[in-house]
Amino acid sequence: MTQSATSAVEWYRRAAATGRISAYSELGHAYASGFGVPMNPDLAFEYFGKAAQAGHAGAMLDLGRMYVAGFGVARDPRRAEAWFVKAAELGNANAMIELANLNRERLVPSATDAAALAWLERGATLESGRAKYVLGLALMEGVLAPVDLARAEALFSEAVKLEYAPAKARLIQIRTSGDEM
After folding, report:
1. CA separation for the pair 77, 83 (Å, rounded)
2. Which of 7, 66, 70, 129 has its CB 3.0 to 4.6 Å from that of 75, i.e. a possible disulfide?
3. Helix, strand, coil percentages for the chain (3-state, nearest 5)
4. pLDDT tens digit string along 27-48?
5. Alpha helices per DSSP H over 70-125
6. Biggest alpha carbon–alpha carbon distance for the chain
7. Distances in whole angstroms, Cα of residue 158 to Cα of each of 14, 24, 138
8. Cα 172 from Cα 66, distance rounded (Å)
């Protein structure tokens, strides 16, 4: 652990002690990754939980991811879905992508391709390069919906404007492939 990482965690602790909700989320990340502290999934879950209960959409997303992976908690896609829905309702595009994945992979009882596509569509309406990119991939590859290269190209172009780097390669691929796709 570096001195700067340890220092950062100390600042997060101080900020959390004053009620800064985002500091709880940052402490969750520190304990989940071992940044400046020994990795501790239990403490990660605790800190993400405090931030999520206070309305922090990113922490809600992180709790959902812990439940999907079974990291520090029992694997539970239904609980993951509940946290992702809460984060999505607050406008978190990454939570919408996670909800699409839960549906596409049939990890929750009510899962459908239509629901997966609806979450991707909703995420792509936000200013999220990643959400636009993921929907573009689905349309480029004919996953969840028929192939629509024109729309995929438009989504990749929007994602590039939002500085989402992976979209640039896909945009080039579409523009140079012609009818090969």
Report:
1. 10
2. 70
3. 75, 0, 25
4. 999 999 999 999 999 999 999 9
5. 77-89, 93-104, 113-124
6. 59
7. 39, 33, 15
8. 35
Token pair, residue 115, equals 């629901």
Tokens at 31, concatenated = 């304990």
Helix (H) or strand (E) segment spanning residue 59: helix 57-69
pLDDT in tens, 132-171: 999 999 999 999 999 999 999 999 999 999 999 999 999 9
List of long-range contacts for 108-114, beta carbons under 8 Å, 24+ apart: 108/77, 108/78, 108/81, 109/78, 113/144
| Dihedral sign of CA atoms 59, 62, 67, 68 in order | positive
Distance in angstroms (rounded) separating the CA atoms of residues 156 and 29? 30
| Terminal Cα-to-Cα distance of the chain (whole angstroms) | 47
DSSP for 110-135 reads: T--HHHHHHHHHHHHTSS-HHHHHHH
Query: C-alpha angle 57/80/35, rounded to 5°?
Result: 60
Radius of gyration of the chain (CA): 19
